[in-house]
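Posting for a labmate who doesn't have an account.
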Amino acid sequence: MANQPVAAASKLDATVLKIAGVVVLGAIMSILDVTVVSVALPTFQNEFDASYARVAWTMTGYTLALATVIPLSGWAADRFGTKRLYMLALVLFTAGSGLCATADSIGQLIGYRVLQGLGGGMLMPLGMTIMTRAAGPDRIGRLMAVLGIPMLLGPIGGPILGGWLIDVANWHWIFLINLPIGAVALVYAWRALPKDNPEPSESFDFLGMLMLSPGLASFLFGVSSLPETGTITAVKVWLPMVLGAALVIGFVFYSFKPQHPLLDLRLFRNRNLTIATISLFVFIIAFMGAGLLFPSYFLQVRGESTLHAGLLMAPQGIGAMLTMPIAGMLADKIPVGRTVPFAMALIATGFFTFTQVGTDTSYWLLCGSLFVMGLGMGGTMMPMMTSALRTLTHHEVARGSTLTNIIQQIGGSVGGAVMSVILTSRLNESAPVPGAPAGPDGKPVTEAALAIAAQTHPEMLPPGIPPELIRKGLDFVADSFATTFWVGFALVLATLIPIAFLPKKREVSHLLDDQPEGERPAAPVIIH
């Protein structure tokens, strides 16, 4: 424990910045990995001679591992200490990355991705816990802004990095690149993170784990199967969703009985946490869902390469980098309820442009809109997370971090699945190509599918296809994207409703309330 001078109470000293560096390294690895692998799915299909549904399990298996381990991270952080657990998460993730690079079958790759997910699932909630405790009540906004950078840049940098590595090397390098980063992060964590002070008094909620972890995994499996089947009536979708929801609902009723449940839903008695969590959930469904379709528009409608599509998304990251440090400082001084609505208005303004996209919409307009959205993103997500965690006590922070990460995981999965289904359903309404043979699935080839193939794999098309047919199909595809973006835009506007209830008065921090009177510092300290 290191006391900071009162004069420096609001400044980020070297010790805190070193801790932030450890957390950011871990976050970069886990977040980049998700988007990098998504770019490599077509490569996996060719390499392992597998269907898209089969290789998609490299993503689904990782997601299910996250859902399984995230609920355990709050209890484990208190029981074993955040430093030990964070280093274990780094080891699991890095080892999983190395094993993924050695896979010689799609089954092996899926299994190794699950191991990766067990480590990756702990990195973000533990990182938030470490940062919140290290910052103290007066600096949490700026520290959260630091953690937010990889969260926002991952979806942009991932496609660029993945496309480049696959182009200049091979798919193995999207995993091998994690090995040196993981090794550096492990040594860095050992040197920079303060010594653990675990609290072994709480018993493990084994019954709660048997309900919550399988329940979340089952529910997210059903949601993840939705884009593949295209309908919620498919047994593969509704059965695991119903079973998962039943287990989660059962946990909700059960969780109020034990003194120390696996996931403490009593935290929702904290109004700030509840409002911020609801706002985050709706926002992530909208942004993570529709936002993942922005690169797809550049790929399928405009015919850009994966690398170029990633570069076209860069203005969003630049905008976020400009406003995020400012938003972090403001979050420490001004109630987030006075700043976040303006940031959301910027996101809505930029998002609206994509509801009007066509086959030749100006790149200047699209990139400018992405920049404006980035400006809003930098002032939205992390201030809301700051509001959620600031008013918790020291002991509640680990459980609160776990809670917000579960909400984000569910929101991201639901948003991605819903937007994919809306887009797919709209594309399936395209007219069939006259006289064309049926596709591999037995269904007629549509004008939209033909147009997408012309943009993404022109070398595979037979000669003699009329250009007018391609143009007609592209118009339909662009219109389908615009329709889907309208849904995302409506959800962005809906986020303004819970955001209106965010605190507009200075929040009283309770981070030190449960610390012994003699241990409370006059200024922020490193509490760990």
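Reply:
Got it, the structure tokens are right above this. The mean pLDDT is 80.
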